Amino acid sequence: MVTAATTSAPLIEKHTIGYVPPEDRHGKTRDLFTLWFGGNIAPLPIVTGALGVQMFHLNLVWGIVAILVGHLVGGVLMALHSAQGPQMGIPQMIQSRAQFGSLGALLVVLIAGIMYIGFFASNIVLAGKSLHGVVDSVPVPVGIVIGALGSGIIGIIGYRFIHVLNRIGTWVLGAGIVLGFGYIFTHVQTADFLTRGSFNISGWLATVSLAALWQIAFAPYVSDYSRYLPANVPVAATFWTTYLGTVLGSSLSFIFGAVAVLATPVGMDTMDAVKLATGSIGPLMLVLFLLSVISHNALNLYGAVLSLITLIQTFAYRWIPTAKSRAILSLIILAACCFAAVGASANFIGHFVDMVLVLLVVLVPWTAINLIDFYAIHKGKYDINSIFKVDGGIYGRYNPQALLAYAIGIVVQIPFMNTPLYVGPISEHINGADLSWLVGLLITSPLYYWLANRDTAYKRRLSTGKLANSI
């Protein structure tokens, strides 16, 4: 059914972090499938998926199994966050004030913003390399700027345009990657395609973790793209369309990277391997991936801007910026990222993956607290007015229980970490497998639930407020 809100929704988004009122709600839950399927058919997940056979030395079968397990598990958390969007009508990061308090949420918002900027910068490097691969006469730095400007235009236009492009991208990129698989499997250039690598428990666990963390990395902004849906859409519908789209799209890209690397000689760069493995259709694949990375990267710019606005609005609480403010901040971030990316080292992507692994150590406990608070404690009912108050309203400036659970959730991960900055003793004992994210989830979730339910003062304070999604 086409509603008045759907037909009258402006192309250029007027909202930023403010509550989306019922009259501005539009779209269908199936849009979430195309957004997360099309958005994940891109070079960065292809490069990441190849690590299972490149870095962790799995063979094709065990690499595929690890990829599927990781995405199936991580996708549950990601989709549960997505289902919050229609119920709340506000971006994910500002919603964190309801769990951590108006000031307590600042650290998580800052970390998420840095991660978005890191994603954006690394993707414009990939865009520059892809454009150079398609047109040799275009230098990589020029390609970086072109890719950044393309993503910037999409991000500035905003929510509706992002969804429109990904509806188109789902069909085009879906057909392209199926065609790519078909070509590679019929033109394998290596004799050890099926036998290169072997099963090893540390490599398998590491690949599972990499796939799961890919999904968890979306958690801080996934509900930003469901918040315009009508509030009465079923939670299950939001969950399943998001889950199926992100798991299917990400898994295909991860597996495509592993297949391309195994089908080409050892030691090749992943995207060079893709170009070689796809032979005569290689240029077409690079064009599709170039368009994909430009489109998908708009989400990272959009998320970075919303995080920055959330940080500023914490102190300038009367300021709910408009599309003009969002455009200005987008251009500032875009220019800074271009400057950094053009002068970046050759191993920029590798450094980026290292950075994300470090940041996810502090985002995993946030995911656990946010989901437990939303589904088990508040059951989706929040006072939206309080979330935008400088003193946090009924949620206060700080929530000691959430901050304590968050700190413990970080500390318990340390022995299981494997990052460039630190390798924990347990991770070292199991040959480098990083299980910190799993430990963080398993400890933080019940701990926060217990702390929140025993805090009678906090519950009394909540009972005095109107716990309803209204503004």
UniProtKB/TrEMBL annotation:
* Major localisation: membrane
**Which residue ranges does UniProt annotate as crossing the membrane?**
33-53, 60-80, 100-126, 138-162, 168-186, 198-222, 242-264, 327-349, 355-377, 403-423, 435-452
The superkingdom listed in its UniProt entry is: Bacteria
Protein location: Membrane
Question: Looking at the UniProt record for this protein, which Gene Ontology cellular component terms does it annotate, in alphabetical order?
Answer: plasma membrane
Pfam families hit by this protein: Transp_cyt_pur
Membrane topology listed for this record: Multi-pass membrane protein
GO MF, one term, reads: transmembrane transporter activity
What keywords are assigned to this protein? Membrane, Transmembrane, Transmembrane helix, Transport
What the record says about family reads: Belongs to the purine-cytosine permease (2.A.39) family.
Name of the protein: Cytosine permease
